[in-house]
Amino acid sequence: MDEEAIVQKCKEGDLLAYRLLYERYEQPFLRTAFRMLGRQQDSEDAVQETFLRLHRGIHHYKRGSRFSTYFFRILLNTCYDILRKRGPKQSDDFDMADVSQQHSVELKQSIDQAIASLPDQMQACFTLFAIEQFKQDEIAQILGIKVGTVKASIHRARKKLRTWLSDSRKEGTG
Amino acid sequence: MSCDFLRKYDQGELNEAEFKRHAISCLICKKAFEIDEDVLSVAKSLRRHIEAPYLWNRIEGSLMEEMAKKQTFNWRLFRFVPALAALFLVVWLGIHYFIENRTPHSGLMAEKTLARVEKKEMEYMAAIQDLEKQALPKMAEMDLELVFRYRDRLETIDAQIEQCKEDLAFNPANAHMRRFLMIALHDKKETLDEILNPFNKKLKSRRSL
């Protein structure tokens, strides 16, 4: 079913349409929220609140703009609100057994830690770009910032992660 | 150990393709590029599956609650409709009653209307007086019996006019009395017209002496 048609059904209050959206966005939403909030419980709360906010404001969504960027923007705003209320990030353990076995567990843990240590906006840009595979202009729309800012954030994030990784490699060999 | 290309790349002044071309011949940049590739590759592999078996049930529950709230809200609004209609009716009746009582409609005129009517009456009476002045010499030439009849009739009309004027001096806004006065003046005017134009068939047919 076409996403615009699903959104139209959501506007009419069709719960099944919301279910279809949930099936499409559940994992990217949970991953992104988890990256930002660090706890699974909080990320589930954020996704639930995002669906509620979508329901309340879906009549403001206009055809033509990309729905995924609109929806992700709601999620990120919800995450920022939770962070503001809750205070500094608290982390659950990240179970590396769940992720791809292509790289060593240490390397993944190291990169994961490094991503988690990035400032909020930089982390959001990098997560959406490198993990969720959004294009830079889409990230700009989601976060409501300029494409130039997104590019700069991703560059700075890469530099930080590179420095982090080369330092940890030196420590490992030293 | 650093390279100007790497600095430019980190600051976003150099795009990835240009940096990649340069990295082939520069060891520093080559290493940096490899680390970047590793970081991106590992980051991509961090797309783990997160289990949240009860999340949809929670979302569905809260959405249903929200939808029910909306419906209840609408129903509450509808509950107020009869009350609002009754209030509107009361207000409308009040305004109507106020207007009805403020505006005289049973034979009494408003000040502005009265002034306008009085002005027109004065003009009408002045015109009739002129007509009377012209009619008097004509009456002197008439048959005596006819003169008596016309004089009789004019006296009756004048008495009627005087009576109306007296009543109006006491209550100038009395529209009924104004109408009687106008009828009397009109009668006088027609009588004078008959005296001045004795052969006008139209006038004669309208009133027989």
Mean pLDDT of chain B: 82
Main sheet: strands, sense, barrel of chain A: none
- Biggest interchain interface, per-side counts: A-B, 46 and 32 residues
> Which structural category do the helix and sheet elements of chain A fall into?
mainly alpha
Shape of chain A: elongated
Number of helices of chain B: 8
Count of domains of chain A: 2
Considering DSSP H and I runs of 4 or more, what fraction of the residues of chain B is helical? over 70%
The main β sheet of chain B shows up as:
none
Series of H and E elements of chain B: HHHHHHHH
The first-level CATH class name of the largest domain in chain A: Mainly Alpha
The number of strands of chain B is 0
Number of strands of chain A: 0
Overall 3D form of chain B: elongated
The oligomeric state is heterodimer
Give the helix level of chain A as a range of percent.
over 70%
Describe the protein in words.
The complex is a heterodimer of chains A (174) and B (209). With 174 residues, chain A is an all-alpha fold. Chain A folds into two domains: 90 residues, RNA polymerase sigma factor, region 2, helix turn helix motif (Rna Polymerase Sigma Factor, Chain: A, Orthogonal Bundle), CATH 1.10.1740.10; 73 residues, Winged helix-like DNA-binding domain superfamily/Winged helix DNA-binding domain (Arc Repressor Mutant, subunit A), CATH 1.10.10.10. The longest helix of chain A is centred in the last third of the chain and has 27 residues. With 209 residues, chain B is mostly helical. Chain B folds into three domains: 42 residues, no CATH class; 54 residues; 96 residues, no CATH class. Helix content of chain B is 80%, strand content 0%. In chain B, helix 2 crosses helix 3. The N and C termini of chain B lie far apart (136 Å). The chains are: A mainly alpha (174), B mainly alpha (209).
